[in-house]
Amino acid sequence: RKCVKGCVFAPYFDSEQGTAHFAAVHKVFGASNASKLLLRVPAHKRLDAVVSLCYEALSRVRDPVYGCVGHIFTLQQQVVNLQAELAYVQARLSILQRLPSSAPLRQQSPTPTFHRFSSDLESSSNMPMHFDPRHSAVASFCSPLDDDEFEDGDLRTLAREFVSKYLSDVKRRPSSSP
């Protein structure tokens, strides 16, 4: 159906995606209910209300049981996983900082550093059971150091490279030289 003159939906549902979005809103909320809701919202906030209605409706069409709550659960799980990964990296960094700085990295025990410390961390931390540091984004950061790479044991350089590689969106404090 075409909008009549003065239709509350006309400014918000364009001809490209508007039809599909309106169909979802109509199916989930009903045109009458959506219209009543939009008329109660101040005109300057209606676009936000329409965006929310469309998001909720499209989510409900894709997932009739959970709707947008399923997406929220997924995001919450990602937060839990990232917090566990951060805790692991912080623990690993703490361990690396306690290593004697004068000892060359090549002369460490033959047991790979990552595996030796990961088992200690897994048993002593409160990481979720499904977090496996060997398959995380930090695996390359926590893996045994190559002989020719980081010969001077510069932990700050290693940390900066990790942050720039994996956490490019994070704002960093300026580093202070020791």
List keywords for this structure.
LOB; 178 residues; mainly alpha; LOB domain-containing protein
Structural description of this entry:
This protein has helices spanning 18-28, 31-40, 46-62, 68-98, 113-124, 139-142, 155-166. The protein has two domains: 18-62, no CATH class; 73-166, no CATH class. By secondary structure, it is mostly helical. Residues 107-127 and 144-152 have low confidence and may be disordered. The chain has seven helices and no strands. The protein is elongated, with a radius of gyration of 26 Å. InterPro entries: LOB. Belongs to the LOB domain-containing protein family. This is LOB domain-containing protein.
Gist?
This protein is mainly alpha-helical. It has 7 helices and no strands. This is LOB domain-containing protein.
Q: What is the fold's blueprint, element by element?
A:
Blueprint: H1 18-28, H2 31-40, H3 46-62, H4 68-98, H5 113-124, H6 139-142, H7 155-166
Organism: Escallonia herrerae
Domain LOB: 1-93
GO biological process, one term: hormone-mediated signaling pathway
Total domains: 2
Please report the distance between the alpha carbons of the first and last residues. Answer: 70 Å
Principal-axis shape: elongated
Biggest sheet features: none
Average residue-wise pLDDT: 73
Structural class: mainly alpha
Portion of residues in helices? Answer: 40-55%
Strand coverage percent: under 5%
Q: What is the number of helices? A: 7
Q: Rg, please?
A: 26 Å
